[in-house]
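Give me structure tokens for this 445-residue protein.
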Amino acid sequence: MRNTNILNGRPRSSIERKISGLILKSTVRMPNILVFVLLFALCFAIAFPAEIYTDIPYYPDGTAPQPDKNLLDIYVPDSAGSDTPVFFWIHGGMGIHGDKDEYAILGQNIADQEGYVSVIISYRFSDSLHPEVVHPDHITDVARAFAWTKEHIAEYGGDPNRIFICGQSAGGHLCALLFTNTAYLEAEGLSDDDIFGAMPISIALYDAWTYVIGGEMITAYQPAFDSDSAIWYDASPKYFLHGGMPPTRIFVAQDDPANIRLETARFYNDMNEYQPTETIFVDGGHISEVYDLIHNPDSRIRRQIVGFMDEVISASVKETPKMPDSFIISVSPNPFNSSCVITLSCHSRTPVCHSNSSNCHSRENGNPEGRAVLEIYDLRGNVVWQTNLSDNKKRPQQTAKRGGSSRLDGIVWIPDKSITSGIYFVRVIEATTSVVGTKRIVYIK
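Here you go.
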């Protein structure tokens, strides 16, 4: 159901309504100049939330097994164009509790702060009111919600060919199961090729079958999986790993329970038999990692998840190896106009940042091997702007810093009128034409 409170042709957000109400009340009590100052401050203190579409059924009319749970919400950033990548979230709760509404702020923040279209789903769970719900009901719902997203997300500015799936705890299990046991996607006419990337967090059950045959069944999960060993086998990602799975990054918290850390280690080892896969340890425990993901844009888990999506997207359109830790690209949007200031920080021996290196100077006859170039390209790989960092006449100011590092300041990108809102990437290519690193820009026109 679309929010019908409209502002300038789009749904008004809750914060916008609160601000307008505050201003209406304030006009009675404050001089106009104070109201203006308050509004100005609020505009820079917070980002207006995305367009929000709530309680969308993902089963065809009249076929939802549990209509109050088979729903999803969509959060569309202001920067969304026609091909914005999609973040698809599966909540946790041991298969016996949880709801999409608990993650509304996550949907808003991933859209507002990171520029991705967010899809937050609910699915059936096995509580005392619904004892008939057991595996594979949960994964069947997730596959159906994913299929609906694939079919309809373009109507909301999302790219159906760039959908990342992510979930935590029981949601991490369902995330992993969706791209390993492909029977559920195949039932929807899809395959794991339709998943652009996967990010299971603190996967609670990787080898569930072992718990049954070893007599170590976890009582908390029994309502969701019954006691039939065949069900637990089918619910175990371990037994369905295969070649050609989507790019995956696994996450686990430093203080996660021991069984989750063990399952993660097994998952990591087995995945690397098929394809290179990283495991990222994040701060905190099983609950605090989710809080950080939702609320803290600078947390390790948020930066690693968003960074992984950025890497996969960028590599799909340009040659983009992982950026070394010694090289940092910073982008600072100017709040007063549409320009962006770009700063490069790296070790002084890196050719791009070393003014005395012969590799950094343009060579005669336009030989590209003598250049250090910064370029900005869109999600289709089209270069929309570039500048030659090797030309001393145009070279940004260089600032030496302690520790053998240096910084290039003063690179300013002013988008022309043809540039539309959306996600763009900054790419730096050094003298040898190898890529040094990339950085994402979310541009709102």
